[in-house]
Write a structure and sequence with these properties.
- The protein has about 240 residues and is an alpha+beta fold.
- A hairpin with a 3-residue loop joins strand 3 and strand 4.
Length: about 240
């Protein structure tokens, strides 16, 4: 009886992100900035990254942090806890939460424009940062330049895209040389123009925006049918 009471008490205090949601619902992430609002979904195929991002969101970890690194036609990066109170000349990008997340490489998930992926250092396991992330802007590739990317992917020992993925890179755009080297775990389903706006801001030689770009990150469990109806995102069955 004592063990049962203990288990019940633990269940009562379990955080929202730890409870298994209904299959009919998904977690909709909202990132708010001075340049507009982005809404994202997190992939079920990368459960460790999804659970961790929900945890940090529910803890309000990201609120007030900066997009501290931006490179036009590449990506925008944020999530460094040191950025919350950073001085204008402070170098950012080394902050963490004291743990990493094992890589979750899924062939179907690739670096098309708008994807959410985990930053990392040069560890040989390619484990992800526990908190830093980037959102892909990338560029649209023609046949000649894509061939150069194919060679670069081989040099980086990454994953060559499928024919279908190549077509996405040649129409929507993205950063194909990152596939198989960094974990993709979500995507922007509304507000993609915000990525373009942030990426185009002036930055210093270390790619930090000259004016701080802060974020607020929130989330809510929403019926998948509502997400599809409201934002046009189609779930794979």
């Amino acid at each position: 009886m004592r063990i049962l009471v203990l288990l019940l008490s633990l269940w009562m205090v379990a955080p929202v992100w730890a409870k298994k949601p209904s299959r009919k619902k998904d977690y909709l992430v909202t990132i708010t900035t001075a340049f507009g609002t982005m809404r994202l979904i997190l992939y079920d195929q990368t459960p460790k990254h999804k659970t961790n991002f929900i945890k940090l969101t529910e803890e309000k970890f990201y609120d007030g942090l900066l997009f501290h690194r931006i490179i036009e036609k590449f990506m925008i990066q944020g999530g460094d806890p040191n950025s919350r109170t950073a001085q204008p000349d402070q170098v950012l990008g080394n902050g963490d939460v004291g743990y990493t997340i094992p890589a979750e490489f899924v062939p179907e998930l690739f670096h098309k424009k708008g994807t959410l992926a985990a930053a990392r250092d040069n560890n040989p396991e390619k484990a992800s940062s526990g908190c830093q992330f980037y959102i892909v802007q990338g560029r649209v590739w023609d046949d000649e330049n894509f061939q150069k990317q194919t060679e670069r992917i081989a040099q980086m020992k990454g994953r060559q895209p499928t024919d279908a993925q190549k077509q996405v890179y040649k129409t929507l755009g993205g950063t194909p040389h990152l596939d198989g080297n960094y974990t993709v775990f979500g995507e922007v389903i509304d507000g993609l123009a915000v990525v373009d706006s942030i990426a185009s801001q002036p930055a210093n030689p270390l790619n930090r925006p000259t004016k701080d770009i802060r974020m607020t990150v929130s989330g809510e469990w929403m019926k998948k049918k509502k997400i599809t109806k409201q934002f046009g995102y189609t779930y794979q069955k």
